[in-house]
Predict the 3D structure of the following.
Amino acid sequence: MKELTHYIDGAHVKGTSGRFSDVWNPATGEVQARCPLANADEMARAVEAAAKAQPAWAATNPQRRARVLMAFVGLLNRDMDKLAEALSAEHGKTFPDAKGDIQRGLEVVEFCIGAPELLKGEYTDGAGPGIDIYSMRQALGVTAGITPFNFPAMIPMWMFAPAIACGNAFILKPSERDPSVPLMLAELMEEAGLPKGILQVVNGDKEAVDAILDNDVIQSIGFVGSTPIAEYIYGRGCSNGKRVQCFGGAKNHMIVMPDADMDQAADALVGAGYGAAGERCMAISVAVPVGDETADRLIEKLVPRIEKLKVGPYTAGTDVDYGPLVTPEAKKRVLGLVQSGIDQGADLVVDGRDFSLQGYEDGFFVGPHLFDKVTPDMDIYQQEIFGPVLSTVRAGSYEEALKLAMDHEMGNGTAIFTRDGDAARDFANRVNVGMIGVNVPIPVPLAYHTFGGWKKSMFGDLNQHGPDAFKFYTRTKTVTARWPSGIKDGGEFHFKQMD
């Protein structure tokens, strides 16, 4: 069986802790590799190498750092299929979806190539008598990121690209469920010209996470994952004096107004609800039609679309709509929540519990589910399911629909489908959610804007990527300067007259 490694100081390094995690093939249900789980000593060695390499990298001018990222973009495009193949094999998502995962990370790298402009400070000439004031953005030092299984290429690049562009070294602790692509990205960064030690990949579980949180050298931590772990990392990291941004769970609502194009809304819900098997923090998991007539029309449109979804392994071709869940535990959890929805009185309109794929009976596939008449007290509404399950909560009015999105403890993303500009404008202004779609079901901002939720979906004061990333990965230093007068009169540059 394949044994994976860490990537420390420019080399693949075998784990020494003696602990490993299984890496599954989600389509077949077989273990395909073992991932080493680092202990505190292994993490400390990676941090030490990063700290040693970082000062010279910070002293490299931003334009030269940007050239490394520019070369990295070329290598990502060169190896796109190879990376997507590795990603799909460990995660289970379809091949086109895997390429999209890489592409959305690549776009953030492209944005970070603008580091020379983004790192410029401010200058005030003549702030007082002979006084000038200017500011500088300087690297933090050694930074770290803890990333989830569902986007093993995109989210690491969302973190390490701006961190490295700013002159920092970066310790990446990826998910132990699908660690191969992060290791490949580190290799490509060094092929692009990044000095050894600036990007390290250390695999691990909670022991490695705690080693990051408690290491005095690490100055900042980025995290994406569940809300309970986000709260833990944010609290412990901040108490240790680190700069921390943590992105937690989501329960994204899509309000469907009576005037919406029902075909457009149904297509959007199917793609946003079931794409990547629902394992997205921006997945739409709650449809909120306004009025029973709207709900009935929407359900009528949804059912045939959902029943036609093609579920299968990524090797089955590009027409597969979604693949398996990532682990057997994920499958068990999703089916348990489905059962709770039935037990608590929701109507299961499309039942995917008996789904089985010939030749892949042991894989972690879950058929699509559609619930109607879900109420806010049910577990399937309260919890993030992270599976191919769409819940319909009927609202009697626009205000009731808006209240549902606003009252939920999570506030990552939301959307409204309507032809009414006034309703859309009111919704965007009033809803207490971080990312809003108007006739757009998954409103993930492009790389030059920022990504971030509200409420218990985000802990910290700066979002991911866009301009906020360059603020998060730098400190501002302000200099007030005054030079003594008279020096310019001290020299003589003309011939003296003879006495």
